[in-house]
Amino acid sequence: MTGTMKQVVLAAYAKGNPRPSDFRVEEAPIPQAGEGEILLRTLWLALDPLIRLALDETRISGATHQQIGEPMFGPTVSQVIESNHPDYKVGDIVEGRTGWREYAVVAPDQSDYRGPPRIVDPALAPVQTALGALGMPGQTAHSGMIDILKIKAGDTVAISAAAGMVGSLAGQIARMHGARVVGIAGGPDKCQALLSMGFDAAADYKAADFSAQLKAAAPEGLDAYFDNTGGDVTLEVFKHLKRGARMAMCGYIAYYGVGMEGPGPDHLPALYRTIMATGLEIKGFAGFMAGPKAIEDIARWAKEGKLTFPEHVVEGLDAAPEAFSSVFSGNSFVGKLLVKVSEPT
Amino acid sequence: MTGTMKQVVLAAYAKGNPRPSDFRVEEAPIPQAGEGEILLRTLWLALDPLIRLALDETRISGATHQQIGEPMFGPTVSQVIESNHPDYKVGDIVEGRTGWREYAVVAPDQSDYRGPPRIVDPALAPVQTALGALGMPGQTAHSGMIDILKIKAGDTVAISAAAGMVGSLAGQIARMHGARVVGIAGGPDKCQALLSMGFDAAADYKAADFSAQLKAAAPEGLDAYFDNTGGDVTLEVFKHLKRGARMAMCGYIAYYGVGMEGPGPDHLPALYRTIMATGLEIKGFAGFMAGPKAIEDIARWAKEGKLTFPEHVVEGLDAAPEAFSSVFSGNSFVGKLLVKVSEPT
Known about the structure:
Radius of gyration of chain A: 20 Å
Helix content of chain A: 10-25%
Oligomer: homodimer
Strand content of chain A: 15-25%
Number of strands of chain A: 15
Largest sheet of chain A: 7 strands, mixed
């Protein structure tokens, strides 16, 4: 296949929150699939907050690092257009990490630790859910609530960034297990959306009475906390933990823009005091640890009508820089943020 | 009994590290034992770092709070001089929290959650060990290593403030369980003392090459960390943790002088990044959770010659303010810091 395609490259490393001007949309030749390679056309691109970790000038140990002028990396769902590999045939839908571009070539036998593109069954669910509920974010919500927090009936659990894909799913899973679920989100619209999804209560971290809202939502205190943010939200949650509380540390969007050190004061003493005062247990985890069982569970629960996965879709790669930046400046949408790049054939 | 006694009162709330001038030695009447009460003469006073938490002007939720002009609180071993309570007879040795004074009256039936004075068997061990290895610090070391860290053969574990009572005991318990034990302490003398106690390696946090010392002591990284300090020591240890490491948070002497917030920069992001990068599990705990079984174990291990409990003893209450202050300014002694207040009869 010949011709040109659209791609989004990194124009400047982010300082603090990413801005649209940190990215540049450009034309590039459609790449050619060589021996053992497959050519993919991007259908969906997920603008996950975690991408931010690759945008610091100094590489963070363990994280992907983005080069200036190179196409942005990112999780995608694509269709196989040409295949020189026996495991993939033209027309297959795959989930991978091909980045912010309309076409990409992948060598499945030379994959990193995350493995080759995963073939997605379009009969199971809309294919873009492979980037959300039926993919890594779903595994993350499942693993955090079930394996890490061991959520159970009678627990009261709070979730930060609860209107996001992971948070909204985590909250619904906790409710299915009989817990009282308190979602934390920014603004009344998002809080209302959480209640519509079946959350027992919602607390608006942008409201002046956020602390009182949390107190009202969990008058006896919190047994568990599913943290996607860190920062001021978490420091407030610390004041509402019961003795013996558990905390699953899933993400820290408040700190994606800083390195190992943020501007002062030092809040690490607050964490120590909280842990010592409550006997808090904190555990970090990664979604891929949950394995395919998590995805099977979520697919079944969705079929049974127990789960909903809200999506916020923007159209075309041109919209990606602004949409991605809005994640860090307090956007107003709920659920998974997706770019619809093209239609399948 | 009539007459006067010596006591140490708080003269000023501490700003940062306590100083000897924050305390005042004064004379007071020996208190009288009323109905249901016992009169105790103090034999030993423990100058535990945790006392610092009571010396802030603003009371910390959950902690004891010291009033200006009142006798300092603190753990003691005492002898019963007069008894108006059926459970105690004259001559008994008890462990309690009667503070920095030569005599005290206690109403055993009106104790707080920590219970009435505990009668100590002088045949078991020197009575002052009831404040250390055979008391709460011993329970803390036992609980942290065994219940929280679940230490096992093949583990490499680091311990901060390893030359202290809890740290030195924790390290010896870890060795008994087959772990490789790395003690962290300030200065070559303390490090040498750790090696004499059987630690596999010691790292001097005051040395310019502290990081390299830790790397040499645990070239493959750390499976577990028993933290008594927080602060810069812990931030360095974070760089040496293996994936899936466990951390028992036992104390945080680096933060006793600050409230919920220390001077910047904010190191909470470092904790989040460490937890997410390593899957670190952090758990806070309190020694009293370990129960009497821990003390029985330690007494038995000591009899079998498997444990030593170093002590540093200063003589008389007059010495307490300076000795206590030295805990926070980097003293040079090893093990339990005790004031010998008087001899038993």
